[in-house]
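Morning, I've got a small favour to ask if you have a moment. I owe you a coffee for this, so here goes:
>
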Amino acid sequence: MIDPRSSDQHPSVPSSLDRRRFLAGAAAISVPLVLPGLSFGSSRREDTLTVGVIGCGGRGTGAARDALEAGQDVKIVALGDLFPDRLEQCRTNLAQHDAARASVPAASCFSGFDAYRGVLSTGCDIVILATPPGFRPMHFEAAIGAGKHVFMEKPAGVDATGIRKVLAAAAEADRKGLCVVAGTQRRHETCYREAIERLHAGAIGELLAGRCYWNMGSLWNVAPDPARSEMENQCRNWLYYTWLSGDHIVEQHVHNLDVLNWAFKAHPERVFGVGGRQARTAAEFGHVFDHFGLEYGYPKGRWALSMCRQQDGTAGKVEEMVTGTTGQALLRPGFARIDGPTPWRFSGDNGDPYVEEHRDLQRAIRQGPRVNEARQVAESTLTAIMGREAAYTGQEITWEQALNSQQDLMPAVLAFAELPKPPVAVPGRTKFQ
């Protein structure tokens, strides 16, 4: 069954707050951190954590509300978005939600391609990065450079050039003692955490293979407006342009691939498979594919089947399965079951991972241990990117090829001007970069 909270809603509708959220969880690295007036282990609860939001669509608006729910000593102090209309929608929504803690003055609201710089200049403690993922590496690099703690939505980027920037900034975050939480929510959803812990403890023996799916219908799209520049039309309809979204295997299916990496405690070594564009061929769907089917090869001879599609009228399936020498695990949001010699099924309070991710980030900043999930989400994102490129080109792609690729999808100039429309990839013709 499809989790309705796991797909971005129309970016112009900030009331769509049931977007993908995630509970922070990654390698906890204990590094001393002292902020002005705030230190780990402090019992002082009067210190307010201030938050700036970069990306004010449904994604960023929802994340801001989650941050407020996660802690009473949190305040939204700055907003930034490419588009002034989306910025104002978010600003109004947050003020109505919590006037005392989320009424952002006009002087702390910024729009345009450099809006992120304005948010980072306000002195906020935490930044939420929720723009289309093509901008994520640039914004994450700048946020860490400015000494901010970060909640970074998934995916971490759309190409290898961006992923390398994220990995470098992740290392810088470690050096600066900063906390980073990423938007792969299954990592800390209670049922997932308990199930993966059991798998790592040997509940189904040695892990051999995995399967993961995100099969559903189409999402929103924004029809092009001839009064707008091509750059603006693509940015407003960002799901359907690889330089902005990474295609749906990267933007959405990364959740499922992340679970397999988590279960196997590794990233894949190679991938090959198929993909194409059959159901969504109209101009408003840009140039992305509408289905992918891939086989990933993991270390120790393990493998995983990955399938995702966005085609109306098709059967839905959003879940992960892991097979071991003595059993199998089935996972999906709110559900986890293990079959084998020691069968188990999750029961109890699953919590709200969409709030807990922010609560965990706030807790890590205040009292530790420190958390930095940037490398984890970067590796899962590259897992998705290499799968996309295997389907786009029709070639087998290795991890090293993917990581060292010189592909850079970001336009050379960011301005509201004309922008070439990328062609649809053709396997066997499109070349790996």
User: Anything to note?
Assistant: The chain has two domains: 4-185+355-372, 187-350+380-404. The two ends are 36 Å apart (CA to CA). Residues 26 and 376 are 7 Å apart (CA to CA).
